[in-house]
């Protein structure tokens, strides 16, 4: 089996400790990526955490939030210009298992080089004071219960493209070009990965779950629903609705509506005019966050 020239792409904006540990985890990989690219959004200090043998590509942010879709495309362009045949995207919060890259390479070959590939992601508990020990990650948690966890070495065709997420996935260069990358209309948090999967489905591109391609998501505080991303989620949901005729992120949108944060007006969803009166300056602080 020929080995594809592989690039690992990670988008960052802060989270330097997470990035540094990810860089350390790559040194334990059973195979090394030929190329590794960190796309730093308004982050001049990312290089130190990225480690050696890693390119740092700088990308400007926007007033509306982090341009995650455009940044991923920027990383892919950098890799393709250097002959990458397999693109592996890994979120800055994720730590690759030693076998992650070899599993993605095998799956790329076994699937006929034309599928979107996604491995299971485990959400880790808070790190102890001494930090995570990479050698013990496999015993710290279980993959996300809402997504498949096939046996290592197996490929499971997805029956729901909406379960795709961009935390950890791989795609061949030709398939990436067929999809056209991520739609850059999306800025800030939410829906750009659902759009990517919808585009793949519309093109008839298979989506496969890759057994044993584990990634471990480092713990950080989250809110449920993610009120700090309300404006971006509402804006991106409307973009998705225009493109695909349905709403994405329905669980979050329903939760926002139940809390009086948004209102549905026919085919539109807007921020509630009573939001500021109900929640005051807390809302201003939450919805101006881009982290």
UniProtKB/TrEMBL annotation:
<dbReference type="InterPro" id="IPR029044">
    <property type="entry name" value="Nucleotide-diphossugar_trans"/>
</dbReference>
<keyword id="KW-0961">Cell wall biogenesis/degradation</keyword>
<dbReference type="GO" id="GO:0016757">
    <property type="term" value="F:glycosyltransferase activity"/>
</dbReference>
<dbReference type="InterPro" id="IPR027791">
    <property type="entry name" value="Galactosyl_T_C"/>
</dbReference>
<protein>
    <submittedName>
        <fullName>Galactosyltransferase-related protein</fullName>
    </submittedName>
</protein>
<feature type="domain" description="Galactosyltransferase C-terminal">
    <location>
        <begin position="161"/>
        <end position="207"/>
    </location>
</feature>
<dbReference type="Pfam" id="PF02709">
    <property type="entry name" value="Glyco_transf_7C"/>
</dbReference>
<keyword id="KW-0328">Glycosyltransferase</keyword>
<comment type="pathway">
    <text>Cell wall biogenesis; cell wall polysaccharide biosynthesis.</text>
</comment>
<comment type="similarity">
    <text>Belongs to the glycosyltransferase 2 family.</text>
</comment>
<keyword id="KW-0808">Transferase</keyword>
